[in-house]
Specification:
Layout (H helix, E strand, L loop, with lengths): L5 H6 L1 E8 L5 E8 L10 E6 L7 E3 L6 E6 L5 E6 L8 E6 L6 E2 L9 E4 L5 E7 L10 E3 L44 E3 L5 E7 L5 E3 L7 E7 L6 E6 L11 E6 L6 E3 L8 E8 L2 E9 L8 E5 L4 E2 L7 E6 L5 E6 L2 E8 L4 E8 L2 E8 L2 E7 L6 E5 L6 E2 L13 E7 L5 E7 L11 E7 L19 H6 L3 E6 L8 H5 L8 H15 L3 E11 L1 H10 L5 E7 L5 H7 L3 H7 L17 E6 L7 H11 L4 E6 L9 H18 L2
Helix pairs in contact: 6-7
Length: 650
């Protein structure tokens, strides 16, 4: 058996976005390496029979980024976005399922952001910014009356099926009513070219504007499977810079131009999904669980914006429709597929997977997902919604010695049930302890460690285990997988009980002889980076720490980051590591992306300057955002982090 290398981690091919054909017979999906080797990503498409009767084959190969595959209604064509004509500029392509040279359908200088296939097969709705000859892209703050910034009027539909809006003049036409007057408050036009809707006529290749949403930015557009209304989600601004981007939900008929407002959806609305019951077609979406900004996602009925998952002790992840409404749920360390029963209004469990599922797609009585368990990396699985789900293709990364992974269950100081994972060095057991222990804290805080294969450039439990460390992967309060109350409990109290949740788990591993009390390290990224910095500012138990893209000052982040009002709902100056940085004696490795807009570089600079001449290293990766994407940077991070812990926890 071979040893794990950093190259094996970042060069592994990771599947994504599996899509089942409408007849349920085929699955197409994208794959890409963990790390990007050049300026632009490279990803390929693969096609396989849904029954696994033949191995997957590469579909329309090209040294470019091919992504977002979708099927025509007759299951004969596959459409996808690709920048094979001009790198970095995505266009729409299609090819026959049997293969052949893909046909380029668009030539849009500004690139296509997204698309929706209309069921009749003769047209495609494009989501793209308006084309301009000049390259200017100003960022402008407009205070007061913002010319042309239309706000969606309030309104909604009652319960029952969602029918197309009645025919009427298309918005923006001479007969259409004037747009409402914009409100008198500061508004943003943060991108000169917000995404809009366009209709591509396939027989003629003609493209024309579709609808008029003023200056609002189109985020999603999803066609109803029977050719009726188009569901459209818009924001008031085209990026997250101000942290306020009021959403609106619309029904739009591409045949008549008629538009109907569905009112204001839940914050962070996403994943518009058409599904059908005996009353007709309905629309659902994911959004933040009310009340408040912290507490994770819920499933909503778009007709009345009713929370369909209220009170569930689990957390929805993804939706799939076309027939009954299906959803993926995070349930502790596991993931389930559930189906909504319209009669009871409850989601009934169909399939439970030990580990993670993502990329849910449904068609013809078949579902496809990307699945991973404690012993198997990400692979595409397919089968009936109630299982079993069969793996398509061979298991990757064979011949490597892996560390054993255990599920942990324990109670917090206040009696709250908690879970997590433990990864031991390859070939070792608990009896071989105590080991140097690295606690790896996930971000979010609304995220989790599922009982999946822990292999990635940051979620690198196997990489650290291969270096001789035991790795503790906790899910403290605030994580997903245990319902709204569990997730919302950290609002305004980050670093409080969630920190003691970490310490309780570490204490148990020390008591059990797994962890060496004198060789403890901690690492985290994003909110996990906050937790790592917070930990070493409040205890000297840890002999080494890694803070990656970490939050150091909550008020500063609220003023400079993408999620201002959400950051203010989480932390304050008192719960900021910078307030307590004078106490830090633990050596800290600080790493950050230079172009991070989520947690700006100023956060890392603040910690670096606060530590002064105390032992620490400060590493900035150029061209990187909140997550490292370049292969060389991922390799450097993996080696640098493991060397840091190896030196200080020896």
């Amino acid at each position: 058996m071979g040893e794990l290398t950093a190259e094996a981690v970042v060069d592994r091919q990771v599947p994504a976005t599996p899509r089942v054909s409408p007849d349920g017979r085929w699955v197409v999906y994208a794959t890409a390496p963990e790390g990007r080797t050049g300026r632009h990503p490279v990803s390929g498409l693969w096609l396989a029979p849904a029954d696994g009767g033949e191995p997957p084959r590469e579909f329309a190969p090209s040294p470019a980024e091919d992504r977002e595959p979708r099927w025509s209604a007759d299951s004969g064509w596959i459409c996808f976005l690709s920048d094979r004509a001009e790198r970095g500029t995505a266009q729409l392509y299609r090819a026959r399922r049997e293969g052949g040279t893909p046909e380029r359908l668009t030539d849009w200088r500004a690139a296509i952001s997204d698309y929706a296939l209309l069921p009749d097969g003769d047209a495609v709705v494009l989501v793209a910014p308006r084309e301009r000859d000049e390259a200017a892209d100003p960022r402008v703050r407009v205070v007061g009356r913002a010319a042309g910034s239309a706000e969606a009027p309030a309104g909604g539909l009652g319960q029952g099926s969602l029918e197309p809006p009645s025919a009427g003049p298309e918005a923006g036409s001479p007969e259409a009513p004037a747009e409402p007057t914009p409100p008198l408050h500061p508004t943003w036009d943060t991108q000169a070219r917000p995404d809009r809707l366009w209709l591509l006529d396939l027989p003629t290749r003609a493209v024309r504007p579709l609808g008029d949403f003023g200056s609002r930015h189109v985020v999603e557009a999803v066609a109803r499977p029977d050719g009726g209304a188009l569901a459209v989600l818009t924001w008031s601004a085209a990026d997250r810079e101000p942290g306020v981007f009021e959403p609106a939900l619309h029904l739009f008929d591409p045949r008549t131009g008629a538009r109907q407002e569905l009112g204001v959806p839940a914050l962070e609305a996403s994943s518009l999904t058409w599904w059908r019951d005996e009353t007709g077609w309905r629309l659902a979406y994911l959004g933040l669980t009310p009340p408040g900004l912290i507490g994770g996602d819920a499933v909503f009925d778009a007709g009345d914006h009713r929370n369909l998952t209220a009170g569930l002790p689990v957390c929805p992840l993804e939706l799939a429709g076309g027939g009954p409404l299906l959803a993926l749920f995070a349930e502790g360390l596991d993931t389930t597929i559930r189906r909504l029963d319209p009669a009871t209004g409850a989601f009934a469990e169909l399939t439970r997977a030990a580990g993670s599922l993502n990329g849910l797609s449904a068609g013809g009585g078949t579902v496809a997902v990307v699945a991973s368990t404690a012993t198997e990396p990400d692979t595409v699985h397919c089968g009936p919604p109630g299982g079993p789900l069969a793996r398509l293709g061979e298991l990757p990364l064979r011949g490597i010695r892996w560390g054993g992974q255990e599920r942990l269950a324990y109670r917090a100081e206040d009696g709250l049930d908690l879970d997590g994972l433990l990864v031991l060095p390859p070939g070792r057991t608990r009896a071989d302890g105590p080991f140097p222990l690295v606690t790896l804290v996930h971000g979010g805080p609304y995220d989790r460690f599922a009982d999946r294969f822990q292999l990635g450039w940051f979620r690198c439990g196997q990489w650290l285990a291969a270096g001789g460390f035991a790795v503790f992967l906790p899910n403290p309060r605030g994580s997903s997988g245990h319902g709204h109350a569990f997730a919302a409990s950290v609002a305004g109290d980050v670093g409080g009980a969630e920190f003691t949740d970490l310490l309780t788990g570490i204490d148990l591993l020390v008591k059990d002889g797994v962890a060496d009390e004198d060789r403890l390290g901690i690492a985290g990224g994003s909110h996990g980076g906050f937790m790592a910095a917070w930990a070493v500012a409040h205890t000297d138990r840890f002999k080494a720490a890694v803070v990656s893209a970490g939050v150091i000052d909550w008020p500063l982040l609220a003023a400079t980051g993408e999620h201002s009002r959400f950051e203010l709902a989480l932390g304050s100056r008192e719960t900021s590591p910078i307030t307590h940085a004078d106490r830090i004696a633990t050596p800290v490795l600080i790493v950050h992306g230079e172009d991070d807009a989520n947690v700006p570089l100023s956060q890392a600079e603040l910690l670096h300057h606060a530590l002064g001449d105390r032992p620490h290293e400060f590493v900035v990766y150029p061209r990187e955002g909140h997550s490292l994407r370049e292969r060389g940077h991922q390799l450097d991070f993996l080696r640098r982090m493991r060397a840091w812990f190896s030196h200080l926890l020896a």
